[in-house]
Design brief:
This protein has 531 residues and is of the alpha/beta class. Among the domains are: 63 residues, Roll (SH3 type barrels), CATH 2.30.30.190; 58 residues, no CATH class; 82 residues, Ubiquitin-like (UB roll), CATH 3.10.20.90. The protein has 13 helices and 26 strands. An 11-stranded mixed sheet has the order 10-12-13-14-15-16-17-18-19-20-21, with no helix packed on it. A 5-stranded mixed sheet has the order 23-22-26-24-25. Strand 19, helix 7 and strand 20 form a beta-alpha-beta unit. Helix 7 crosses helix 8 and helix 8 crosses helix 11. It is elongated and about 100 Å long. InterPro entries: CAP-Gly_dom_sf (IPR036859), CAP-Gly_domain (IPR000938), Leu-rich_rpt (IPR001611), LRR_dom_sf (IPR032675), Ubiquitin-like_dom (IPR000626), Ubiquitin-like_domsf (IPR029071), Ubl_TBCE (IPR044079). One of its GO terms (biological process) is cytoskeleton organization. Belongs to the TBCE family.
Amino acid sequence: MAAEVPPDALGRRVSCGTDYGTVRYVGSVSRTAGIWLGVEWDDPQRGKHDGSYEGTQYFKCRHPKGGSFIRPNKANFGVDFLTAVKDRYGLNEKHDAHYGTGGTLVFGTKTVEFVGMDSVAEQQRQVQLNKLVDISVRECAVSHAGQEEEISRTCVNMRHINLSKNLISSWDTVIAIASQVQNLETLNVSENKMRFPSTSTFTSSAFSNLKILALNQTEITWTEVLLCAQGWPVLEELYLSSNNITVLERPDNVLQTLKLLDLSDNQLLDGNQLHLIAQLPRLEQLILRNTGISSIHFPDAGFGCKTKMFPSLKRLAINDNKISQWSSINELDKLPSLRALQCNNNPLMDTEKNPETLIQLIIAKISQLEVLNNCEILPAERRGAELDYRKIFGKDWLEAGGHWNPEKNKPSEEFLAAHPRYPMLCLKYGAPEEGELKGRQPLTLKNQLLTLTIKCPEKPEQKPVEKKLPESMTIQKVKGLLYRLFKIPGSELKLSYESSKLEGKEVELDNDLKPLQFYSIESGDCVLVRW
């Protein structure tokens, strides 16, 4: 017996085994009997042709081998939402294994009849459905909402729904489900290739309480996002990865409550596209992983100034992109609220042979950064990075017109463009002195040795000792040396140092695993030993 084809089969999503596709044709095929479905498969390797057969084009595919014909009985058109929920949570009649047929209960081989047992079982299922708050029906072949108001009568406490990777063909189906969930807060409809409204339509109140929405891999465009966003009045997190979004538009009067936006794996290419979403007032986290951008620029702010763009942005992810110039890192210092940055896997990361040096340069260039590539930046690490930066580029500063005398200090525009934070570092730590301007020297052993004075402030009778130590020596090994010197166990020692350049400032050497160079200790500095 031939399977019945739904009257709205054209354009519907179907599955066939583990493969998903969209019905592009329903009808007969030359020199064959019966009805066929022409399907464009999500995975082109599942297909055989481009929708043509024996010279006749029945439907079109984006991929030349992305289509094939299947019989209707091979296609799964899906189930309604509530059926999927009952199946997933074992609340369907067929899961009541302890019940027999016709209102009977089975005890071993004996069957006892109970009047009204069916209604009791249904009531128990109803109670259990009412308790569900967080529902996941991922990969449960959900294709439609079901009978009107049935969901609202059955699942009154639902707050969070995962509808990812189902057979939803249209945004209207999502609205039909969500409109029956009074307090819906989280919704994931990723991996459903569906149709979205192309013109402004009646705004549904289905998403009036929605705070988190995931639309990854749904083929939505940014224009469609803005149209649908009219119905998301309190949305805080929006996930849009892998949607082929290439062009952005300014979101006027929508998405104004948004705190997180994920645009990863969309080929935006042009960093200037970001200017169009730069006025979202509450946006705190922006994920731009693998978007193809090669530069970032905030033209409204000059050297050392803050931009008015992205006023609330605290966390930015730009990893896996094509950023190759330090000018883009300089630009990030213009963001007034930036605290965390992810920037791994950019060509820029290959410009320095030493990864530690690269990290120090980024820290020194972005003043308010607290977390870099998921690692917290400790105060001592920032201080060391900024002092090193000030020394490394000191000669360039002098050659570009920099001077210790403030009245003569006029570094060139080119220098300020390359090092916009340098004047601030000079104000913070003082202009670099002649002895500090050693530039980037080759790493010979002589260059790596530090001449340090070691004192015991609490033991004035102990004479200061001068030692030459490699700058790569860890604090733990320094403690081992001092144990042999003072016969005090390393675990009891507390070390700090005073810089010869910054009198009165004492810095704790509080991480045993870090080398001396991490703390920017220089020859002539004094290590203080306490226990």
